[in-house]
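Quarterly update from the structural biology core.
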Amino acid sequence: MTDTQQPYQEPVAGLMTLGDVRNESEWRDYLAFGFTEEHVPELCRMILDEELWWADGESDEVWSALHAWRTLAQLRAESAIPALVELLVRIDEYDDDWASDELPVVLGMIGRAAVEPLRAFLADSRHGQWARAAAAHGFVEIAQHHPELRDECVAELSRQLEQFAKQDQMSNAFLIGDLIDLDGVEAAPVIERAFAANKVDLMVHGDWEEVQIALGLLDQRQTPPPDYRALMAAQMGFDPDEMLRNLDAVVQSRLQRKSEQQAAKKAKSKAKAKRKQAKQSRKKQHKRK
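Predicted structure, tokenized:
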């Protein structure tokens, strides 16, 4: 166990022994360990403890922050929100998938008190793209855990999408995806304007027609879908026509190879059948003699 400079008291210290959660389908009942509001300051210290974050990757202690923020979620600890929001920056700084997946859930479980801090974080363009995406998804989690806040969360996401001209296409697409998750039909006008301005990455949720279908505004497409292969080529910096020709050549080559393999297999089976037939014929002739 890491020799921390500021040792933790029970039951917080016990979180350092719980270890890996990757095989757990559901969160533990952390409150059963005796956690109460009085443990929130120490839990906040734990989720920000760099020594624990950088513990041996095979140790139990490296999972301490995750157990601590899950505990804060179950406590609905509003006073922990500043520390939790501070952790969002780890998503871009360290490519932290656990923070990306779980911090929006944690803040969502806490509820209304997280709305303003998430709004401020999302509005600050100095933060990384993925951290802001997680903050935006926090509104989805708030609405899902607290349905009475759904309209407020849709309004916050719509307000941020109003800035589509200043934001990159992928960030706008993520906001639209969050609005789809909340059945945000009332946001359709600003979503349409973002698409009309060509400020949405079509590779994320498709074009405006696809989004209308997802929101229940259309039953089916009215025009042919975009050529997503060409869009992908353009995003990757390739000439779309050249890339499509190359892709078609690869596909044709594989089809030709598959056809040749099937033909060879068929010829081999046919030859085997002929050999078997000839062998049987020889046996019959031998018996007649």
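The chain has a mean pLDDT of 89.
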